[in-house]
Amino acid sequence: MSINRSDYEQLLARYSNHTEAVELLKQYRPYLEMIPSMRRSEESLITMPLPVIKLRKVLLEQVSQFSPIAATSKTILLPCDLAYLMCDPEWKIKMGGEIFIFIHRPEEDLSDLLARWRKTQVLLDHDYEWVMPQYYRHIISEGAEHIYPLFVLFNQTPAHIKQGLIGAHLPVTIVSMEQTHLADLIQPDPPEERLHQ
Question: Where are the domains of the chain?
Fold first, then answer.
C-alpha cells in the first residue's frame, strides 16, 4: 500500500500546529525534554513548515584565475518538512538544539529520505540564520550548534525503510492514518445534565 499525497499533506498541516508538535515530540522523549518550558510551551516551541535559511559567506565560483572568489549570502529552502526551534519564553531568543522533521513523502524510497537529512546536515554545516515567519521576526535567530532529525513514517511505509533508518540509529516514529482519521471524527461527549427533582 503506497503513501497518499493527502496523507502526507495532512501530517504536514497537523505537525505545523504547536499543540500537535508537542504531541509528536512526546513520542521521542529526549526531544520533548529539549522544550525550555512545558508550562509555556506555546512560547517555547516555534514550528516552521518548509523552513528557509540564509547561508552567510557562500563562495561563488571563480570566473577566471585573475578574479578573486566572491562571498555573498544565499537564501535556500531546506529539504526537510518542518523545523522545530526552541525559544526562551522570557528573553525571546532562540536556544538549544534544532529538530528537523522528515515525513515520508509519496514515492520516496530509503535513499531519498536519507539524502534529505544528509543534505540538511551539509547545508547547516555553514554559518546560517533563520528566515523567520512574520510572527516571530522579533526573535534572534542564529543557527544552532546541534541539529537533530526525527523521521515520521506511516504504517504502510515499506519495512526496509524502517529497518534502514533504525539501522542508521536515526529516531523514527510511526503514525497510523486510520487512527488519525478516527480521532478527527470523534467528538467529546457533552457534559451530563443533572436531573433536578
Answer: 5-61+68-144+159-167
